[in-house]
Fold each of these.
Amino acid sequence: MLAEIVLTKFDYVAFGAMAVVFFGLIYFVIWVGDLPASIARARNHPQVPAVQALAWMGLLFTGGVVYVLAFAWAYWNYPQTVHSTDSGENAGSDVSKVQEKQQANPEATAADEDAS
């Protein structure tokens, strides 16, 4: 015959503590997996989805070996370049920004011309 198991209030406290630790570990793994993507997003990285995919694949499939590369890629500085092959809606957008700046504050642009 099976023995009757009696649960006390300390057993319930222990089960609650185990649940908190379990869900805390799940949250921690999700936070760590998304950390390189969050860094890349904050630094306006042009390839955020790729950094996020590399971070998750590196964390889940390689045991964290490739995960370090995701951090390096998230911190990589890309130069802000203007492509001369733009056509259509984005063509000349830099010129239009300069013209808008000149129209908004003509005194500052006149001072810039005097300084050069």
Amino acid sequence: MASLKLTKRAIEKLPAPHPSGKQQLIWDTELKGFGVLVSGTTTAKTYVVQHKLKDGRTRRVTVGPVNALDLDGEDGAARPAAARDHRRHDRGTAPQHQARARPR
């Protein structure tokens, strides 16, 4: 899997659709588990967060489309959202963890 410092300019340069025709994951070198998923068939590019659960399984969560969330701007919405989501899963406070903990 490729990795590079994800900036607005670097993401714009990523080819979409990817020439191989397959999805491509590009990981950020600054924030562990944060990346961009580039479609193999459309022009879609999406921010994703991936982390390991306590039981060893891997969970990938979509943060949102690249064109809707600003990575470098004043609000810098994508990185904080990714970091917040990553911390919630590490602590076990994500919604899916809470749903499993409730008695049925």
Amino acid sequence: MTYLAAMFAAAHVKELRKAAGFSARTFGSAVGASDRMVRRYEAGEIDPPLSTAGQMARTLGVPLDSLYVHATDADTPAAAGEESPTDHEPGAASDSSGARLAHQGG
């Protein structure tokens, strides 16, 4: 399996923390972060530094890799037969859905 990207699995970490019986405060103390930062990590607002994620994994007794969601080449637009933004001609703009936007001359 080839990983193209990895995203912190915020909700999964929260589930693991609660299942292990940690409050945000006690978990934060164990991993060297404030309870506020733990809540921000778990809400997906920010990703923890790799060192903190490693400490989270050790504290929870899970592999570091399990704290991340991986996109594989099967998850890419090209593998699904979809057009990716890089498939557009140079300089072509598209909106967030990938739809091409018409050039407005002026």
Amino acid sequence: MYFFGGNETDLILQLFSLIQMAAMFQDKYIFSQLIAFLNRTQFNNYVRKYNGNRYVKYFTYRNQMLAMMFGQLGNRESLRDLKVAFEAHRAKQYYLGLGREPIAKTTLAGKATLL
């Protein structure tokens, strides 16, 4: 019996190789893929132009923007809800592009009032 121009054995081998490739495929998180479209140089130029990171220790304006994007895309309703989401994804935080330091609710609230 023929399927798609080949025999059953060829089809089974093709399906097996596709399953293997799908199981071994590893890529960035979707959020990381989305922020790859942002022009980091242009954003840094704006921050530098307006002296945005003047008194910043570790939570930069880029981290703030990414945190707010994460909350918006994740449909978070409050800073507390956003903080809970960050705690749940603490191990992935660096790979999402949000840095290594834990994000406190007071840090988000302080930055949010400045924007």
